[in-house]
Amino acid sequence: MTNTAESPSIKMLRQDQLDTVISKEQIDQRLKEMGAAISETYKDTEKLVIIAILKGSFMFLADLIRYIDVPCQIEFVRLASYGNSKKSSGSIRPVDLTLPNLANEDVLLVEDIIDSGLTLSFFIDYLQSLHKTKSLRLAVLLDKPEARSPKAAPVAIDFSGFNVGNEFLIGYGLDYAGFYRNLPYIAAIPPEHQ
Ligand code: PRP
């Protein structure tokens, strides 16, 4: 699921060859609801620090924060574990973990998908070992509960967009070998093309 070196053996499909799993309209409607729930939760908060986990979360973050009406500071970290594969390598590569001091801050993590759970389990553990935040919550667009690895610590999702089945998904920030992130909807590669 991440951008790495070129992989000539992977055939990229046109948009009309893909199966839509969650439409642009469904995503937008759900983001409005999530934004309202997040705004309500933090309505008395002076400042919310949102940390998005790149690269996959860039589109979700950009659209979600338009529906959040409390003062926000936006931060980014970058982690990678999929390479050109459709399965997690099982080891999380911290590409950029640069963050400001989060002591006594209300922090909301924004992630596009929780699949094996290893990325979030790693990052939450890392964050908690370094920063004594006032609160820490999690907003995830897609939850794939059937895919959780026994090696991932259980993670509580405070704001969840959609539960999805155990199929490989692309689009709306999610990639296959670095491609498809630009699709405005969530899609699957049809079985005949896998
Ligand atoms: C993807 C996705 C999540 C993570 C979820 O990132 O964006 O961060 O995998 O999978 P997990 O629950 O199995 O850990 P990836 O490592 O592909 O990097 P990317 O965000 O740069 O695509």
Task: Summarize the topology.
Layout: E1 19-22, H1 24-41, E2 48-54, H2 58-64, E3 72-80, E4 93-96, E5 106-114, H3 118-130, E6 135-143, E7 159-163, E8 169-170, E9 186-188
Parallel strand pairs: 2-3, 2-5, 5-6, 6-7
Antiparallel strand pairs: 1-9, 3-4, 8-9
The structure holds 1-O-pyrophosphono-5-O-phosphono-alpha-D-ribofuranose.
Bound ligand species: 1-O-pyrophosphono-5-O-phosphono-alpha-D-ribofuranose
Mean pLDDT: 93
Oligomeric state: single chain
State the distance separating the first and last CA atoms.
15 Å
Strand content: 25-35%
Give the tally of β-strands.
9
Strand count, sense and barrel status of the largest sheet are:
6 strands, mixed
Major sheet strand order: 4-3-2-5-6-7
**Helical segment count:** 3
Query: Can you tell me the overall shape?
Result: globular
Report the uncertain regions.
none
State the order of secondary-structure elements, H for helix, E for strand: EHEHEEEHEEEE
Category by helix and strand content: alpha/beta
Radius of gyration: 16 Å
Helix content: 10-25%
